[in-house]
Design goal:
By secondary structure, this protein is α/β, with parallel strands linked by helices. The protein contains 6 helices and 10 strands, in the order E-H-E-H-E-E-E-H-E-H-E-E-H-E-E-H. The radius of gyration is 15 Å and the shape is globular.
Length: 154
Protein backbone atom coordinates (compact mmCIF):
# COMPACT_ATOMS: atom_id res chain seq x y z
CA UNK A 1 0.00 0.00 0.00
CA UNK A 2 1.04 3.59 -0.56
CA UNK A 3 0.88 5.25 2.88
CA UNK A 4 1.40 8.87 3.92
CA UNK A 5 2.36 9.58 7.53
CA UNK A 6 2.23 13.13 8.91
CA UNK A 7 4.19 13.14 12.19
CA UNK A 8 6.59 15.67 13.70
CA UNK A 9 8.20 13.49 16.39
CA UNK A 10 11.37 11.74 15.12
CA UNK A 11 10.85 8.75 17.41
CA UNK A 12 7.33 8.19 16.06
CA UNK A 13 8.60 8.71 12.51
CA UNK A 14 11.14 5.91 13.07
CA UNK A 15 8.42 3.74 14.60
CA UNK A 16 6.34 4.24 11.44
CA UNK A 17 9.30 3.26 9.23
CA UNK A 18 9.90 0.10 11.26
CA UNK A 19 6.26 -0.92 11.57
CA UNK A 20 5.25 -0.18 7.98
CA UNK A 21 8.45 -1.28 6.25
CA UNK A 22 6.54 -3.48 3.79
CA UNK A 23 4.53 -0.50 2.49
CA UNK A 24 5.44 2.33 0.12
CA UNK A 25 5.81 4.96 2.85
CA UNK A 26 6.18 8.73 2.68
CA UNK A 27 6.65 10.66 5.92
CA UNK A 28 5.98 14.37 6.18
CA UNK A 29 7.32 16.10 9.27
CA UNK A 30 4.86 18.97 9.56
CA UNK A 31 1.51 20.37 8.55
CA UNK A 32 3.39 23.07 6.62
CA UNK A 33 5.14 20.40 4.53
CA UNK A 34 1.78 18.68 3.94
CA UNK A 35 0.09 21.98 3.02
CA UNK A 36 2.85 23.03 0.62
CA UNK A 37 2.76 19.62 -1.07
CA UNK A 38 -1.00 19.27 -1.47
CA UNK A 39 -2.24 22.88 -1.54
CA UNK A 40 -4.53 23.65 -4.44
CA UNK A 41 -6.71 26.32 -2.85
CA UNK A 42 -4.81 29.21 -4.44
CA UNK A 43 -5.14 27.88 -7.97
CA UNK A 44 -1.74 26.22 -7.92
CA UNK A 45 -1.10 22.64 -8.87
CA UNK A 46 -0.24 20.29 -5.97
CA UNK A 47 3.22 18.69 -6.05
CA UNK A 48 1.69 15.26 -5.32
CA UNK A 49 -1.76 13.82 -5.88
CA UNK A 50 -3.20 13.04 -2.44
CA UNK A 51 -5.73 10.67 -3.99
CA UNK A 52 -2.83 8.44 -5.11
CA UNK A 53 -2.38 7.28 -1.49
CA UNK A 54 -4.18 4.23 -0.15
CA UNK A 55 -3.90 5.50 3.43
CA UNK A 56 -3.15 8.74 5.25
CA UNK A 57 -2.21 8.44 8.93
CA UNK A 58 -1.65 11.59 10.94
CA UNK A 59 -0.89 12.89 14.38
CA UNK A 60 -3.43 15.42 15.68
CA UNK A 61 -1.05 17.98 17.16
CA UNK A 62 1.60 19.23 14.77
CA UNK A 63 3.78 22.34 14.80
CA UNK A 64 1.55 25.33 14.13
CA UNK A 65 1.97 26.90 10.70
CA UNK A 66 1.77 30.31 12.42
CA UNK A 67 4.55 29.69 14.94
CA UNK A 68 7.87 30.94 13.59
CA UNK A 69 9.79 29.35 16.49
CA UNK A 70 8.36 25.88 15.80
CA UNK A 71 7.36 25.09 19.39
CA UNK A 72 3.62 25.74 19.41
CA UNK A 73 1.35 22.83 18.49
CA UNK A 74 -2.00 23.05 16.74
CA UNK A 75 -4.63 20.43 15.93
CA UNK A 76 -3.83 20.60 12.22
CA UNK A 77 -3.96 16.79 11.96
CA UNK A 78 -7.73 17.19 11.70
CA UNK A 79 -7.19 19.32 8.58
CA UNK A 80 -4.87 16.64 7.14
CA UNK A 81 -7.61 14.04 7.72
CA UNK A 82 -10.32 16.23 6.18
CA UNK A 83 -8.15 16.93 3.14
CA UNK A 84 -7.52 13.17 2.74
CA UNK A 85 -11.26 12.48 2.99
CA UNK A 86 -11.89 15.18 0.37
CA UNK A 87 -9.36 13.45 -1.91
CA UNK A 88 -11.24 10.16 -1.34
CA UNK A 89 -8.31 8.39 0.28
CA UNK A 90 -9.65 4.97 1.27
CA UNK A 91 -8.14 4.78 4.78
CA UNK A 92 -7.68 7.83 6.99
CA UNK A 93 -6.38 7.48 10.54
CA UNK A 94 -5.75 9.96 13.32
CA UNK A 95 -3.58 9.05 16.30
CA UNK A 96 -2.31 11.09 19.22
CA UNK A 97 -0.20 10.85 22.31
CA UNK A 98 -1.97 13.89 23.77
CA UNK A 99 -2.82 13.37 27.41
CA UNK A 100 -6.41 13.99 28.39
CA UNK A 101 -4.99 15.61 31.53
CA UNK A 102 -3.04 18.27 29.64
CA UNK A 103 -4.50 18.67 26.17
CA UNK A 104 -7.92 20.03 25.13
CA UNK A 105 -8.17 17.63 22.19
CA UNK A 106 -7.26 14.70 24.39
CA UNK A 107 -10.05 15.76 26.76
CA UNK A 108 -12.52 16.11 23.90
CA UNK A 109 -11.63 12.67 22.55
CA UNK A 110 -12.09 11.00 25.95
CA UNK A 111 -15.34 9.61 24.54
CA UNK A 112 -13.24 6.77 23.13
CA UNK A 113 -10.78 6.25 25.96
CA UNK A 114 -10.25 2.57 26.84
CA UNK A 115 -12.19 1.57 23.73
CA UNK A 116 -11.15 0.35 20.29
CA UNK A 117 -10.63 3.10 17.74
CA UNK A 118 -13.67 4.98 16.54
CA UNK A 119 -14.35 3.85 12.98
CA UNK A 120 -16.73 5.26 10.42
CA UNK A 121 -16.61 5.15 6.64
CA UNK A 122 -12.93 4.25 6.37
CA UNK A 123 -11.80 6.70 9.05
CA UNK A 124 -10.40 5.69 12.43
CA UNK A 125 -9.48 7.80 15.41
CA UNK A 126 -7.46 6.64 18.39
CA UNK A 127 -7.61 9.31 21.04
CA UNK A 128 -4.66 8.40 23.26
CA UNK A 129 -1.32 6.84 22.62
CA UNK A 130 -1.56 5.03 25.98
CA UNK A 131 -4.05 2.74 24.27
CA UNK A 132 -2.83 3.13 20.69
CA UNK A 133 0.84 2.64 21.34
CA UNK A 134 3.42 0.46 23.00
CA UNK A 135 6.50 0.95 25.12
CA UNK A 136 9.84 1.22 23.40
CA UNK A 137 12.36 1.63 26.17
CA UNK A 138 10.90 4.11 28.62
CA UNK A 139 8.63 5.81 26.12
CA UNK A 140 5.29 5.04 24.50
CA UNK A 141 5.41 5.19 20.70
CA UNK A 142 2.49 5.22 18.32
CA UNK A 143 1.39 1.90 16.87
CA UNK A 144 0.96 2.90 13.24
CA UNK A 145 0.72 -0.71 12.07
CA UNK A 146 -2.17 -1.42 14.43
CA UNK A 147 -3.94 1.75 13.31
CA UNK A 148 -3.59 0.77 9.65
CA UNK A 149 -4.63 -2.80 10.35
CA UNK A 150 -7.69 -1.55 12.22
CA UNK A 151 -8.63 0.66 9.28
CA UNK A 152 -8.27 -2.16 6.78
CA UNK A 153 -10.30 -4.60 8.86
CA UNK A 154 -13.12 -2.11 9.50
Amino acid sequence: MKVLIVEDDPINQEAAKEQLADHDLIIMKSFVEFFKTFNDCLGGKPKLDLSSFDAVLTDINLPSPHDRKGVEQAATGFVVALKAIQARVKYVGIITDASHHDDAYGKALDLWIHKPPFKSGGIAIWPECYHAGYYKGDRVVKDWARLLSGLISA
